[in-house]
């Protein structure tokens, strides 16, 4: 009998958390339009507002500062715009500075014209170069409008935690607006919008065990807000029109609540599994390069290169052994090839890198199996210098 599949690609997406599944099953019959004033509508509204409170906690924010969207990509496109309002007064943003290791959802620059987007480099260690950020903002022409800076809290490929608090101080000193992509950090490290000093945080449901197609733009206050991306009936206080995807939002809320409740146990266990995995990998293939191992990382991610193994070949080899992992950033629609993150870190773009990412359901036995599949694939590599 074929061995069962082993899912180790949690940074691409997580399976539905049992709590999210239960909440969604219970909510299937909540058919009322949440914007209707009758009892049926109010029942759905109450469930959405409960979800909003649950999502607010995972971001350390006020529930009234959570705007639900169809995911992190939509939240990014909503907030990365030159057109803001401070209350009723329009506020212009002149230029967007976005880190070179951002997910394409932010790196594309949202609604900014391309010539008003600049990249903030990262260091060889994979962290945003704060001196470069300072220099970029010092050169910003305020006559065009305020600067906006977008940085992720944890990188989706390496798992490396970014110096968001220190970046916030720099952005504030230059009177800029600071956007933090907390998609891969939420539920894995403490996330607190005020502690970070972010004006906006972006979170996604399906990375924490909620359903796909739900996310949120979380703001620090209510006064400074971007021009809406989607216009219409004025839902989400006018920030995001369209009848809410109540089922997905309820699942998102339940997954967020579970991530908060299980935070300690989940992350301690996952961190121990990841460390054991990496020790096993090093033992099986002493030449393995684990990117960012010396940096502070989220506990679930291992991004590695096996010299002599191309990323695509490696991914297929693991898949044939029943192991799902990804080559580079899997969440950008199946694009294989070089990792823009490794390139930004100044590493050899030819280095194939694979990502193993764990989650709340990963077990000890799965790590044993991952190590033995890794050892098998590492052992099959051609010794350096041998022609193919
Ligand atoms: N930001 C990061 C860091 C991600 O890993 C992802 C993953 O896809 C996104 C943004 C986009 O999230 P979503 O799939 O909710 O649009």
Automatic annotation (TrEMBL):
Q: Pfam families from the entry?
A: Aminotran_5
The cofactor named in the record is:
pyridoxal 5'-phosphate
Alphabetized UniProt keyword annotations:
Iron, Iron-sulfur, Metal-binding, Pyridoxal phosphate, Transferase
UniProt catalytic activity: (sulfur carrier)-H + L-cysteine = (sulfur carrier)-SH + L-alanine
* Boundaries of every Aminotransferase class V domain copy: 7-369
Single GO MF annotation: iron-sulfur cluster binding
Which family does the entry's similarity section mention?
Belongs to the class-V pyridoxal-phosphate-dependent aminotransferase family. NifS/IscS subfamily.
Chain's role: Catalyzes the removal of elemental sulfur atoms from cysteine to produce alanine. Seems to participate in the biosynthesis of the nitrogenase metalloclusters by providing the inorganic sulfur required for the Fe-S core formation.
- What is the name of this protein? Cysteine desulfurase
What organism does this protein naturally occur in?
Rhizobium tubonense
């Amino acid at each position: 009998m074929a061995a069962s599949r082993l899912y180790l690609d949690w940074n691409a997406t997580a399976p539905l958390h049992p709590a999210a599944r239960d909440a969604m099953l219970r909510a299937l019959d909540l058919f009322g339009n949440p914007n209707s004033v009758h009892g049926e509508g109010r029942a759905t509204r109450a469930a959405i507002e409960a979800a909003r409170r649950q999502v607010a906690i995972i971001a350390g924010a006020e529930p009234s500062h959570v705007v639900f969207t169809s995911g992190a990509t939509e939240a990014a496109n909503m907030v990365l715009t030159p057109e803001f309002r401070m209350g009723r007064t329009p506020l212009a943003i002149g230029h967007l500075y976005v880190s070179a290791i951002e997910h394409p959802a932010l790196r594309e620059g949202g609604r900014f014209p391309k010539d008003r987007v600049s990249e903030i480099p990262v260091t060889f260690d994979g962290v945003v170069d704060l001196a470069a950020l300072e220099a970029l903002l010092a050169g910003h022409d305020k006559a065009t409008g305020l600067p906006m800076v977008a940085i992720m809290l944890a990188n989706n490929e390496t798992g490396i935690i970014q110096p968001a608090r220190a970046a916030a101080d720099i952005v504030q000193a230059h009177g800029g607006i600071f956007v933090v992509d907390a998609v891969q950090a939420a539920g894995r490290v403490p996330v607190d919008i005020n502690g970070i000093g972010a004006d906006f945080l972006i979170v996604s449901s399906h990375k924490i065990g909620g359903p796909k197609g739900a996310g949120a733009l979380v703001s620090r206050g209510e006064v400074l807000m971007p021009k809406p991306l989607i216009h219409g009936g004025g839902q989400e206080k006018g920030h995001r029109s369209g009848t809410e995807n109540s089922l997905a939002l309820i699942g998102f809320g339940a997954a967020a609540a579970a991530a908060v409740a299980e935070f300690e146990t989940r992350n301690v266990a996952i961190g121990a599994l990841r460390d054991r995995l990496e020790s096993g990998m090093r033992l099986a293939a002493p030449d393995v390069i684990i990117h960012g191992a010396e940096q502070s990382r989220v506990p679930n991610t291992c991004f590695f290169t096996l010299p002599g193994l191309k990323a695509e070949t490696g991914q297929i080899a693991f898949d044939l052994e029943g192991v799902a992992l990804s080559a580079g950033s899997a969440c950008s629609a199946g694009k294989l090839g070089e990792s823009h993150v490794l390139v930004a870190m100044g590493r050899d773009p030819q280095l194939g890198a694979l990502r193993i990412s764990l989650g709340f359901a990963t077990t000890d036995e799965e790590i044993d199996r991952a190590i033995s599949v890794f050892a098998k694939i590492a052992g099959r590599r051609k010794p350096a210098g041998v022609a193919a």
